[in-house]
Structure prediction request, 273 residues.
Amino acid sequence: MDQRYATSPEQIPGADTARLRDRFLIEELFVPGQVTATYTHHDRIVLGGATPAGGAALPLPTFDELRAEYFLANRELGIVNVGAAGTVTVDGTEYALPNGACLYLGRGTRDVVFAGDGAQFYLFSAPAHTTYPNQLVLKGEGTVRELGDQLTSNRRSLNQYIHADGIRSCQIVMGVTELHPGSMWNTMPAHTHDRRTECYLYFDLPEEARIIHLLGTPAETRHLVVADRQAIISPSWSIHSGVGTSAYSFVWAMAGENQSFDDMDPAPVTDLR
Ligand SMILES: O=C[C@H](O)[C@@H](O)CC(=O)C(=O)O
Ligand SMILES: [Zn+2]
Prediction:
């Protein structure tokens, strides 16, 4: 399991490209036949991918770093399938996850088994104090918010799946934003939320395209060049916004002090440096 300790905004000035990528970018999540995981000490989020292959079922292991008998002993998990249709079997109950479906698994869920060649299950987990029920929601069946404008190249549909008015959880707030064709910008004007860490998994970006992802405090920004199906960690003090050389989608997911989606500190465009 990849371990990433927490970073402070004081570490941003002077960080070169390699350092920024080591700290904030996860380049490979979907490795056929494997479950990958990164433990970030920002809000103790674990994110990764489960990619079944060769017709074999792929169990979710526990990891030494968790000091837990099984992965979900003290945690909850949000899953979004960004690949072909697959299944997740949870303590004997099979859930079918077509592309774009989101499954929530509560604390205490013991056995989690992924299956389906071509399925790519994105995993986002946070510590949980109690058990909320396991629940599945299909693509487009959450709360949908239409954001942005063609004139500012940021028309996008934001789907909220795990949130206060949808699938309930202890900490996780999770959904998928889809850029409309011809729109390239997400989350601009940008924001921070000092009470939550957020991660983005960019996907459905053409192979030759890239996203220029902005991070840092509003007064001290940097960028990462991000390829398809790579993830970024955005500490509470960092903006998280990107522009693609092509349209794309991303899974956004947060954990921390509260679950209030609109608890954001705006970072006006004219304040960015
Ligand atoms: O705190 C919320 C997150 O940054 C995202 O949900 C923003 C987003 O998906 C978008 O603007 O398209
Ligand atoms: Zn945010």
In short: The helical segments are 17-24.
